[in-house]
Each structure stands twice: as C-alpha cells, then as structure tokens.
Amino acid sequence: MTLKNKISVYVVEDYVLIRKSLRHLLSKDNTFEFLNDFGCAEDFFEVFEKYPSDIVIMDLGLPGMNGIEATKKIKDNFPNTKVLILTSHENEDEVQAALASGASAYCLKGIDPTKWNTILTDVYKGAIWLHPSVSYVANKAMPKPNSTDFNNLYTKRSDIFLTDREKETLSLVVEGKSNTEIAQVLHISSHTAKAHVGNILAKLSVKDRVQAAVKAIRTKIID
C-alpha cells in the first residue's frame, strides 16, 4: 500500500460515468487510497508497472487488451495485487476464465454501492467474492470428491495417465498460459501444444482448460 493503513486502488473501465462514480465513491472512503482510473488496459499498465496497487477494479469489455488478458498479466507479474472484475457480463465461460486468470472477485455493474467497502476489504485480505447471480459457476467448476473420508477426499486417480510432456503442459495450463505461451516455454510448436492440451482434456474428461486446471489442483494429478 502506498499510504499506511489505506488500501490502494486503480480502476480500469472504459465507461466514463462508471469511472467517475467509482472515483467519487472510493475517494471519500478513508479505507482506500484511490490512485487513478483508466479507459484501457494499455494506458493502465504504463502507470501500474511503475506504481503497483493493492487492488485493481477491472472491466472485461475493454478496447484493445480485454480484462481477462489484463488480469492474467497483472497476476503473472504482480501476484500480490488483487483483481476485482466489474462487468455487465454474466457469461459462465467468462466467469470461469476470470477466476482461472487469477481474479479474486467477479462483480456485476449496478451492485449496491454500500457493499463496496466490505467486498474490497475482504478481497484485500484474501477472500474470493462472486456476485450472487454468478456464484453457481464456482460450484459447477469444482470436481466431485472421490470419497467422503476427510483424509482422502481428492485422491490421485489411478486410471488417469499423463505423459511427462502432458504433465508439463498441464502445469502451464494451471498457470493460465495460452497454447502459444506453452509452446514457447516447452520449445514446441503451437500446433503441438494445442494437441497436448486436447489430449489432456480428453484424459481428464473435462470440457475446457478451466476445468482441467481445477481438476489438476484438486486431485493432485501434478505436483
């Protein structure tokens, strides 16, 4: 935090009225230090990378780099910064992608202004917050436990076999890397990386990368 006992916040939102509203709301709350607001992620990163904040309130539908890409970039380089998604989108895939990219909260625009202090403070302390309208997504993404035994809830599935290269790929999927980024790390082609990811999804019996990442963590398929 820049100022003692205050939670520093940036806002990245292309709708001017929402930016002004958040600026007014946060500036008059002594819990927060409102740093600045931006209409696009590119302008935001020019400042943020020099002066990072505790929290970033991030829109999804930004011009240029979208909110999912921006969230991933923040978490890759500044893992201690919390990202709160603020959007009008209730799309399930976008909620899952935001969480998989490292967002700590997913809020819908029009949220009761009196809730901002509690949400931001809880997120700063490490909580995950989902708007009630999209909270079902977290439950759908969670794999079912293999047992009711507290010591064996998520055991490693003996019927799932991944090659060493697939395990390396899955580890990078868990980190939120794209096929292109996986290819660069593993020194393979993007086509080969895509094939590895496809094989992993099939072996894990999941439909997308988010579910694969969640299953990998919960079932300890990778170390």
Descriptive key words:
Rossmann fold, Arc Repressor Mutant, subunit A, 2 domains, 223 residues, alpha/beta
Rg on CA atoms, Å: 19 Å
Instruction: Name the average pLDDT.
Output: 86
CATH-assigned homologous superfamily of the largest domain: Response regulator
**What coarse outline follows from CA principal-axis ratios?**
globular
Just give the CATH class of the largest domain. Alpha Beta
Order of helices and strands: EHEHEHEHEHEHHHHH
Give the quaternary arrangement of the chains.
single chain
Profile the largest sheet.
Answer: 6 strands, parallel
Q: Are there runs of 5+ residues with pLDDT below 50, and where?
A: none
For the record, give the distance between the C-alpha atoms at the N and C termini, rounded to a whole number.
33 Å
Strand content: 5-15%
CATH architecture of the largest domain: 3-Layer(aba) Sandwich
Number of helices: 10
**Helix share of residues?**
40-55%
How many individual β-strands? 6
Structure characterization notes:
The chain is α/β, with parallel strands linked by helices. It has two domains: 7-141, 3-Layer(aba) Sandwich (Rossmann fold); 150-219, Orthogonal Bundle (Arc Repressor Mutant, subunit A), CATH 1.10.10.10. The chain has ten helices and six strands; from the N terminus they run βαβαβαβαβαβααααα. It has helices at residues 16-27, 41-48, 67-77, 92-100, 116-124, 136-141, 164-174, 179-186, 190-204, 209-219, and strands at residues 7-12, 32-38, 55-58, 82-87, 105-108, 129-130. It has a six-stranded parallel beta sheet with strand order 2-1-3-4-5-6, sandwiched between helices. The chain is globular. The model has no long low-confidence stretch (mean pLDDT 86).
